[in-house]
Design a protein that fits this description.
The chain has 211 residues and is mainly α. The protein is built from eleven helices and no strands. 57% of the residues lie in helices and 0% in strands.
Length: 211
């Protein structure tokens, strides 16, 4: 646990920013909810979705120096699974019940770890906005000598187009935003239009070309 908490600077900014947005959105959606309950959801993202896989299967993430033909043995897997289970219970403040009576002695330790986890998850939600983190603004790209390259499939391009249409009011709240006439001129997203083909729902080859 101490290694996880002290290694917050090694966490990707993206996962921390997702935690920040998740926490703020939930706080807005559920204003009466306590921070400790919201932090449990943040903990599910940070610990269960990001940290836990590296504990139960470290060889998949180059966390251990193992040869290709040498895997972890059953005892090692079982021990890592037990560690992961304790940490998962601590992150969600879930103790052992009567079904695991021999492990109920660990419940006070789980509560103690949960308090440390709460502080850690709150720190995860305290990262700066991307503009500050990467020192960028709306004019940054205009003054770059080497223009950035984006690799995106046609299918992803259509999905992004649809997201812009669905959330135009949030992305471009001003009526004079240049995004509005651009979206109006583009019309609905379509792989056919991108490929210069006629609309034909039965033509499955378009879907494969868009990947």
């Amino acid at each position: 646990l101490a290694t996880i908490i002290n290694g917050i600077d090694k966490f990707p900014y993206g996962i921390l920013y997702m935690a920040k947005v998740l926490f703020s959105v939930m706080k807005e959606k559920f204003p009466e909810a306590l921070d400790k309950d919201l932090l449990k959801v943040v903990g599910n993202l940070i610990y269960y979705r990001y940290v836990n896989p590296t504990i139960v299967a470290p060889e998949r993430f180059d966390m251990v120096d193992k040869k290709v033909d040498q895997n972890l043995n059953n005892d090692q897997r079982r021990n890592l699974g037990s560690v992961a289970k304790i940490l998962q219970f601590a992150a969600s403040k879930k103790g052992f019940g009567e079904e695991s009576e021999h492990l109920m002695v660990l419940n006070p330790f789980i509560v103690e770890c949960h308090e440390k986890f709460k502080t850690f998850f709150l720190r995860c939600c305290s990262v700066p906005e991307p503009e500050v983190q990467f020192n960028i603004d709306q004019y940054t790209e205009a003054v770059l000598i080497a223009k950035p390259s984006i690799y995106i499939s046609l299918s992803e391009l259509c999905d992004t187009h649809q997201l812009l249409l669905d959330h135009t009011d949030s992305v471009a709240p001003l009526t004079n935003d240049p995004l509005h006439p651009i979206l109006d001129s583009l019309g609905p997203p379509s792989l056919c239009s991108l490929l210069g083909a006629a609309d034909n729902n039965s033509n499955s080859s378009l879907a494969s070309l868009g990947k």
